[in-house]
Amino acid sequence: MELIERATTVLPDLDDEPNHLDHETATTAAIDAWWALSQAPTLAWPSAAPMTTDQTRELAEAIADFVLVVTQAILNAASKSTDPGDRVACLQAAHHAGRLHAALK
Question: Does the pTM of the predicted model rise above 0.85?
Fold first, then answer.
């Protein structure tokens, strides 16, 4: 969510039609989403109570599933980008996300 927040902050500089998107609302929503997730007890660091092996495995699987969704979005962004540097960065990020996914499985 933090990356999405950072990405939305540059939208006003990139948009040729300033009234096309509600940039302020998008950035605020991204910030709110980040804060909402930061309140999840399971994601608190360090955890208040130790997790069982099964709970840890379930959390790792949920994170791995989330990584796949994010990777698909990154690959979609790469396919739509006209900047070669952006495409390379997206493909590198997708590669690392794939390694992350494999490590969590």
Answer: no
